[in-house]
Design brief:
488 residues, alpha/beta, FAD/NAD(P)-binding domain, 13 helices, binds NADP nicotinamide-adenine-dinucleotide phosphate
């Protein structure tokens, strides 16, 4: 869509991204009485990662009652662990019931953003050449939006079908094929059980064996849906799951009962589901539990044990025209090679040139790794708010619990600028630096410092994960400390 004379170009708020965090921000803005906003979304529909990720088997691994906003319980969930289309439908209903469709501009990206300090406005350039401006700019693109291809030589030489899990083609038909999957993370653990029954042969290339816990899923029946409509039940169910998961957070700390339980359950799960000793040994993790995202699955191990499946633990030498050559000299011939190799989480917003005060570029500010005060604001970038920014990912609970207070925090900052008749608000550089130093110090001795993962950069800096309990984050974020911010 291109701007014409009747399309507004100047807004109080521009929100980039129509996933969970963008939708939440839009709804909270409306509640705060700010209706002059637009949501710019690169994809053709609403949902963010749940729109983009259409690989077979895509599901959430957090119980659905906690994967709904506190202000929008959903009595329609069909399973405790909802699948991607069901979550996308929840998001669509959310957008429709809150009148957000009229605020959406789909199929558009932002390429440049420059803060005009004199006017106290962000000047934005879209990928169709159009310009927008806004007093406040909210980046709600999420950590998991840009798929990452593996850095393996020869990838471009492969003559078969090459797919990435994060951009699954709607018409992909892999039935009867020799399929290879690179990666053994949360995505692969969902894809592999979906592909195994249709593949002629399924080869899974594992670099690291991961910790797998049972997925205590169940179908929600009529009684659940009836209860879901009983006033007070949905918040109670949500609170229950939030508390259960918050308790599970203890499992990331050494010496806790929760940790001993996690390890014992995962080991028993593997013993039960992998009768073949050689396969079981290949699947035994060698890094501390929790360092990478824990996988919840009842069918991943079973899928690997099928006669037509093979787990390859030899390293990959290179990709060839016909398949994958491994370090033991074997060439694995394939019709389709699926890269379930995750996302670029280390360079958030790198597709946009973001210029703050005094021409300072976000890419420069983040040269040694992305960081933001409470994951939300960046010194030198006034009136810019990040949703699910650096160090706000969680390995133990629902990301929605982090999104809601982030929106509260950002809106409180916006309201202060509006109320006090100022042009901008910016986190104080000393406050942001002290926050970052304390956080990195805490993370340096945490379980997340003890392996390679998408939480951690090559230089050892942990850029993605929040080190503490969710309650601690919510307390720190919900109401911004006025002394942490300066106004201009
Ligand atoms: P990921 O956790 O980053 O896993 C990527 C996998 O690819 C890893 O097994 C990695 O091995 C492997 N890999 C990467 N480069 C490789 C290379 N050059 N050679 C061989 N192997 C390579 O990505 P993901 O599985 O897509 O999951 C990302 C995150 O998305 C999850 O942690 C989770 O937060 C979210 N997610 C959630 C769900 C859900 O159920 N809610 C489902 C899917 C994804 P190494 O471990 O050795 O690096």
């Amino acid at each position: 869509m291109s701007n014409d004379a009747s399309t507004p170009t100047d807004f109080e708020v521009v929100i980039l991204g129509a996933g969970m965090s963008g939708l939440c921000m839009a709804i909270q803005l409306q509640r705060a009485g700010i209706a002059d906003f637009v949501i710019v979304e690169k994809s053709a529909g609403i949902g963010g990662t749940w729109w983009d990720n259409r690989y077979p088997g895509a599901q959430v691994d957090v119980p659905a009652p906690a994967y709904s906003f506190s202000f929008a319980p959903n009595p329609h969930w069909t399973h405790r662990f909802a699948d991607a289309p069901e979550i996308q439908r929840y998001q669509q209903r959310l957008a429709e019931s809150h009148g957000l469709l009229q605020h959406l501009r789909l199929g558009l990206g932002i390429t440049e953003a420059r803060f005009d300090a004199d006017a106290g406005r962000w000047r934005l350039r879209l990928d169709n050449g159009d310009a927008l401006s806004a007093r406040f700019f909210v980046c709600s693109t999420g950590a998991l939006s840009v798929g990452r291809w593996p850095d393996i030589p020869g990838l471009a030489d492969f003559q078969g079908q090459l797919l990435h899990s994060a951009r699954w083609p709607a018409d992909a038909d892999l039935a009867g094929q020799r399929i290879g999957v690179i990666g053994t993370g949360s995505t692969a653990a969902q894809l592999v059980p979906a592909l195994a029954p249709v593949a002629a042969r399924l080869t899974v290339f594992q670099r690291t064996a991961n910790w797998v816990l049972p997925r205590v899923d169940r179908r929600y029946g009529g009684l659940d849906r009836w209860l879901g409509r009983v006033p007070g039940y949905a918040p109670l169910a949500r609170r229950f799951w939030v508390q259960v998961m918050e308790w599970g957070r203890r499992g990331f700390d050494e010496g806790t009962l929760a940790r001993r339980l996690l390890i014992a359950i995962a080991n028993a799960h593997r013993r039960r589901l992998v009768p073949d000793p050689a396969l079981r040994e290949g699947l035994a993790p060698s890094y501390p539990v929790g360092c990478k995202r824990i996988i919840y699955s009842n069918d991943y191990y079973r899928a690997l044990g099928r006669p037509q499946s093979e787990l390859v633990t030899a390293g990959i030498t290179r990709i060839t025209a016909r398949g994958v050559l491994t370090d033991d000299g074997r060439e694995h011939e394939l019709d389709t090679l699926v890269c379930a190799t995750g996302y670029d989480t280390l360079h958030p917003l790198s597709g946009i040139r973001i210029e703050g005060q005094g021409g300072w570029l976000l890419s420069e500010a983040w040269r040694d790794g992305a960081n933001a005060y409470l994951g939300i604001t960046v010194a030198g970038f006034p009136n810019l708010f990040l949703m699910l920014g650096p160090n706000t990912a969680t390995g133990h609970t629902s990301t929605l619990l982090y999104i809601e207070p982030q929106a509260d925090h950002a809106i409180a900052c916006m309201q202060r600028v509006r109320r006090e008749g100022r042009r901008w608000v910016s986190v104080r550089a000393d406050v942001a630096a002290a926050h970052d130093a304390a956080q990195q110090q805490r993370l340096a001795t945490s379980v997340w410092s003890r392996c390679r993962s998408w939480y951690r950069a090559e230089n050892g800096r942990i850029v993605a994960i929040w080190p503490g309990f969710t309650a601690e984050y919510v307390r720190a974020v919900r109401r911004p400390d006025p002394a942490s911010y300066e106004l201009g």
